[in-house]
Amino acid sequence: MSVPISGTGTAGGFSTAGAFNTNPAASGTFIPTIWSGKLNVKFYSTTVFGEIANTSYEGDIKNLGDKVIINNVPSITINDYSVGQTLSYEVPAPSKVELNISMAKYFGVNVSDIIEYQSQPKLMDMFTNDAAKQMSIAIDSDILKMSMDTGAAANKGATAGAKSGAYNLGSPTAPLTLSASNIVNTVTALSSVLDEQNVPDTDRFLVISPQVRNVLMASDLRQAYLTGDSQSILRNGKIGTIDRFTIYVSNLLPTAAAGKDFSGANSAGALARKPILAGHKSAITFASQIAKVESLPNPGDFGTLVRGLNIYGYNTIKPEALAIAQYA
Fold it and tell me: What residues make up the domain containing 304?
């Protein structure tokens, strides 16, 4: 929940310190549709998951508690053929994944003069920007933490690679030590692991921390001719694309303490470590809806209380399209 923006004193159980005071103070007509539309647009524009997750099933949700059944395309068996043989037929049975819309977050603000507030678009932008930012931070953190535990087992660890087992992406007991000399190799290893899972080249992403970005900026990628750019990344500050990965920098990637996994559960022998998350946009599906934005009179003052409810759910539907490197 974001910090209430309100008047002075206490009213109706709401803390009212630090107000946007307007004059005169009077309750007006709130337009929830405008607020809801602006909030939803800004919500997606400030997220990492808006870039790394698909929203293919968002139109199928209505309320908290909804369940969307997703059918994965089954693999058809290819058989050898000889002339005159009797053909056999299979009945394809798609596996199912559930997307449960079981989570919700809300915000609430106290606006002392809704008429004045709605006549000033800058104030509406201020409120919607902050509500969207705080909402996205909370949900980004949840999704990134979930992603650490749902990738395919063959796409992590010291012997990653579904076919070769040839790539060391670090493990809980032996995380990598990243440096300017090995960071590019780590990125290309993550790419190769996805190649072994036949993950498409397009729509791949890499989520890194500011610490890893700093290491990348000191690597050979600083030489413009290696990235194909006209300027060095040290000049323009943009990492862009590396080996088919679009790079995103996030402060919200989870860390694992010694003796713990990324979800905080006990993990014997594990060392403190951080992740690099690689994947394809088809791996994670996310659905969100600003379910309700409404206003009600402030029972203890002139003005209006504005509150909004966001319902959402997410799931990994293609775990083979996620890969994780772990470093100390």
Answer: 10-74+92-144+287-317
